[in-house]
Specification:
The complex is a heterodimer of chains A (509) and B (344). Chain A is of the alpha/beta class and 509 residues long. Helices cover 35% and strands 24% of the residues of chain A. In chain A, the strands form 4 sheets. A 6-stranded mixed β-sheet of chain A has the order 6-7-8-3-9-10, sandwiched between helices. A 6-stranded mixed β-sheet of chain A has the order 16-17-18-13-19-20, with helices on both faces. In chain A, helix 13 packs across helix 14 and helix 13 runs parallel beside helix 15. The relative contact order of chain A is 0.10. The mean pLDDT of chain A is 85. Chain B has 2 domains: 247 residues, ABC transporter involved in vitamin B12 uptake, BtuC; 37 residues. In chain B, the strands form 3 sheets. Chain B has a two-stranded antiparallel sheet with strand order 1-2. A two-stranded antiparallel sheet of chain B has the order 3-6. Chain B has a two-stranded antiparallel sheet with strand order 4-5. In chain B, a hairpin with a 2-residue loop joins strand 1 and strand 2. Chain B starts with a helix and ends with a helix. The mean pLDDT of chain B is 90. The chains are: A alpha/beta (509), B mainly alpha (344). At the A-B interface, helix 11, helix 12 and helix 13 of A face helix 9 and helix 10 of B.
């Protein structure tokens, strides 16, 4: 059946959740030995479900999975791993409080002749293995001592060491710096040479073109096609992913600010004077005006998110003063911030944003309910009305308001969080990485919403690692480094080179 | 009719209610109908069902408070000890051992006992919300220390009292119905209204699902935790009053011994996820009735009381299985395999 080179074949896989949600319908996929194969699609396209089926997290309803020409039917990640399919997720699924070496050999620890674990061998083997990956770290330290990037490489090293034939990388690069991504790609290429088949899921098209051999596209749980990477132009790929021809796409992607002349000085919403917070920001000065989209650029840990958290009353202010609309404001808690008209979509949607087990309508009214107070309960009718209003306004794709938010795709979850804050009628909206891990279509939608809101006079703080979208959305840009403001760019001055130069340590021109 | 049924069957209290009815029917059949007999003596209702309600009142009250705590993913294992403190204080005041200036005033005894429970609850809440000690450890402190405190109050003796007014708390009747039932209705009614008519219930579920995100939408998570542990302590004190009025005295070693586990069991039977999230107070109250009726059933069957524990253990196993996704998958798979075999 299988050609000599074919490693993994998936035929006619279907999977439904309940009656309403069809996650996969008749999906195909094949992977060759020594290949890096991109699995692409928008949120909700079925990538995650396909991976879950392959790794035994979910059971398929129908279809066949063949590995090396032999039919397999993994019922757990352990079974999948024994068959030779390993997965490295965006959120590293190792044990952060065990040492690096323990993580690599957990479940298959070498024993000495007394039947106890041979620690010397574990540590030595781990060191040798990581050396192969050019990763020189202390293997006896706890895993959470290291950055996410290193944790991910440890996970990959572990996968390669347990004779994985198929390695699935589910958005491994979302939180990596470009140097780290390069290193990851080196490792991927190395494993490819050794004959491993790698499935690579990502939202970054640049990376797809840099490292993959073939591309399979899914859309709405259906198989769209498999293509050779070098024969598929980028615009066509995007078109296939979102199912539009690219004229419509271009329009969405090219949403731009109206000409500069329309914009004029607006009143100041919030002003920080010499604000410090223990352990994070130091001596921060900031003015945000109504109707502007202010961008925060900087590397991870430069103080972007930290400043937003201080402004939202999550981290305490130890020094300095905050004025909202020219009056002293005390932002001791998120509730204080909300009462001052501030809203905040946090960086980690899953852990800081959504309340997974609650329905969409509950997630939407939550912040408004907090603002109104515990004794002024929002009636079911009003809640339903609000939820429906925002589902339509923001085009949230869901079967209904009762749906649990955890069942939505990432992009739609983000829209629900956005709806939650818009419902409080804020004057200042802070968005921390609002488009991370979200497909291009929804990304463009969210960017457009942001510009619309600012156009109607809202002050917006936009934090993103993607310079492209910052360039498109922001009217002013502040560059941060080491918890300090190191430069500011206005209107036409904003460009990738200028931002990079300041980030790297040069002065603003 | 059908629609009402459908709506009812979606409620969280539906399953426990069915289980409770089945247990009652079983009792009715085994006792050849005696179980349901209600007799009126001196205008007071007597009967097995009345016994279940009266004896189960403490558990129902505790389950109400415990539900909210479990909904946040916490737990309160100090309620039994708080019952002992409450009983010790109330009885010692009534018989004049402490605060002789109150002259055995029952009202003062009740108020001070509930106050002690409230303070205990605030202590628990402080440890959990502010010091961030894991709830099971935080409340274990009072679980252990509480009985000691109670013994210090009674000077290590069993305090017996003679006060018809105080007995009324457990043995009294209003309109032919036992007084504890009214206490339950009042307290549980208060909780249901408080969680349902205000946003408190929504916030609790939110905190139980995702405390960080809840904090980030402006919910004062600390205050919520403090509030529910305080309520739980106050409720436990009331349960302690009922208990001591029932045995006409304070027995610090045995009052409410092990009842915290029954309360947790009641909430679990009610279907509230012990990891936090969705909760239903009515379902927990029915859960408490189930736990109580099992005890009554076993005793009525003439089975040695030792079997009650075994039965409870079985019940826990069944609940765990019914909530386990893995188990359900396993059963469903079996069924499908069987069907395939039959089909082919």
């Amino acid at each position: 059946m299988s050609a000599g080179n074919q490693l993994l074949t998936v035929r006619n896989i279907s999977k439904a959740f309940g009656k309403a949600v069809i996650a996969l319908a008749d999906v195909q996929f094949d992977l060759n030995r020594g290949e890096i194969h991109a699995l692409l699609g928008e949120n909700g396209a079925g990538k995650s479900t396909l991976i879950k089926v392959l790794t035994g997290v979910e059971n398929k309803d129908q279809g066949i999975i063949e590995l090396d020409g032999r039919q397999i039917n993994p019922r757990s990640t352990q079974e999948a791993q024994n068959e030779g399919i390993s997965t490295v997720y965006q959120e590293v699924n190792l044990c952060p409080n065990l040492s690096v070496a323990e993580n690599i050999y957990i479940g298959r620890e070498p024993r000495n002749r007394f039947g106890t674990i041979n620690w010397k061998k574990i540590n030595a083997d781990a060191r040798e293995l990581l050396d192969k990956f050019d990763l020189h770290i202390n293997v006896t330290k706890n895993l959470d001592h290291y950055s996410v990037a290193i944790q991910q490489m440890v996970a990959i090293a572990r996968a390669s060491d347990i004779d994985a034939k198929v390695l699935i990388l589910d958005e491994p690069t979302s939180s990596l710096s470009s140097a780290e991504v390069d290193k990851l790609f080196q490792i991927m290429r190395k494993l490819r040479e050794e004959g491993m088949g790698i499935v690579f899921v990502t939202h970054f098209l640049d990376q797809v073109y840099e490292v993959t051999d073939r591309i399979t596209v899914l859309r709405n749980g259906k198989y769209v096609g498999t293509y050779l990477t070098k024969e598929l132009p980028r615009v066509e790929l995007v078109g296939k992913m979102i199912g539009k021809d690219y004229a419509g796409l271009k329009e969405a992607m090219n949403a731009k600010w109206p000409e500069e002349t329309e914009r004029q000085e607006k009143e100041t919403f919030i002003k920080l004077v010499n604000v410090s917070s223990p352990g994070t920001v130091k001596g921060f000065e900031l003015t945000v005006k109504m109707g502007e989209v202010l961008g925060f650029s900087g590397l991870l840990g430069s103080g972007r998110s930290e400043t937003a958290k201080v402004l939202f009353g999550i981290d305490p202010i130890s020094e300095g003063e905050v004025k909202v609309k020219n009056e002293m404001a005390h932002l001791h808690s998120p509730l204080d911030a909300i009462r001052n008209g501030i809203a905040f979509c946090p960086e980690n949607r899953k852990t800081e944003g959504i309340i997974g087990e609650l329905s969409i309508w509950e997630n939407i009214i939550l912040a408004l309910q907090v603002k109104r107070g515990i004794f002024h309960k929002i009636s079911r009718k009003e809640a339903e009305g609000l939820a429906k209003e925002y589902i339509e306004k923001l085009q949230i794709k869901t079967p209904g308001t009762e749906q649990l938010i955890k069942n939505l795709s990432g992009g739609n979850q983000q829209k629900v969080i956005l709806a939650r804050w818009l419902a409080t009628d804020p004057e200042f909206l802070m968005l921390d990485e609002p488009t991370r891990g979200i497909d291009i279509g929804t990304k463009a939608e969210i960017q457009k919403i942001v510009m619309d809101l600012a156009g109607r006079g809202m002050a917006v703080l936009f934090i993103s690692s993607e310079i492209d979208e910052m360039l498109r959305c922001c009217t002013r840009m502040i560059v941060l480094r080491d918890m300090k403001q190191v430069g500011e760019l206005n209107g036409k001055e904003i460009s990738e080179e200028a931002i990079m130069r300041i980030m790297a340590g040069g002065e603003a021109s | 009719m059908r629609e009402t049924w459908n709506r009812l069957s979606e409620k969280q209290y539906f399953r426990p209610l069915i289980i409770f009815i089945i247990i009652l029917l079983f009792n009715g059949i085994v006792s050849k109908g005696d179980f349901f007999t209600l007799s009126i003596v001196d205008g007071h209702l007597y009967g097995r069902i009345i016994d279940i309600v009266r004896n189960g009142s403490k558990l129902m009250i505790l389950a109400g408070g415990m539900t909210m705590i479990l909904a946040t993913g916490g737990t309160d294992i100090s309620v039994g000890s708080i019952m002992a403190i409450s009983g010790a204080i109330a009885c010692s005041i009534v018989n004049g051992n402490i605060f002789p200036s109150f002259n055995g005033n029952v009202a003062a005894a009740i108020i001070l006992a509930i106050l002690a429970g409230t303070v205990s609850g605030i202590w628990n809440g402080f440890l959990v919300a502010k010091i961030k000690i894991q709830p099971i450890v935080a409340t274990m402190i009072l679980m252990v220390a509480g009985r000691g405190i109670a013994q210090l109050i009674t000077r290590g003796k069993i305090v017996t009292i003679t006060s018809e007014t105080y007995y009324f708390i457990n043995g009294g009747y209003i309109c032919g119905l036992p007084f504890p039932l009214f206490i339950v209705l009042f307290l549980v009614g208060f909780l249901v209204l408080f969680t349902g008519r205000t946003a408190f219930g929504l916030f609790l579920e939110s905190v139980g699902c995702n405390p960080t995100a809840s904090k980030y939408v402006g919910i004062k998570v600390d205050r919520m935790l403090l509030a529910i542990y305080t309520l739980s302590g106050a409720f436990a004190a009331v349960a302690g009053l009922i208990e001591s009025a029932g045995i006409k005295g304070a027995d610090c070693n045995n009052a409410g011994l092990g009842i915290e586990m029954d309360a947790i069991l009641a909430v679990a039977i009610g279907g509230t996820n012990l990891m936090g999230g969705r909760f239903s107070i009515p379902a927990s109250v029915i859960g408490a009735l189930i736990v109580q009726s099992i005890t009554t059933t076993v005793l009525a069957l003439g089975v040695p009381a030792a079997y009650i524990r075994v039965l409870k253990a079985l019940l826990i196993i069944i609940i765990c299985l019914s909530q386990s996704k893995q188990f359900k998958d396993l059963v469903i798979k079996r069924k499908m395999i069987n069907r395939k075999v039959v089909g082919s």
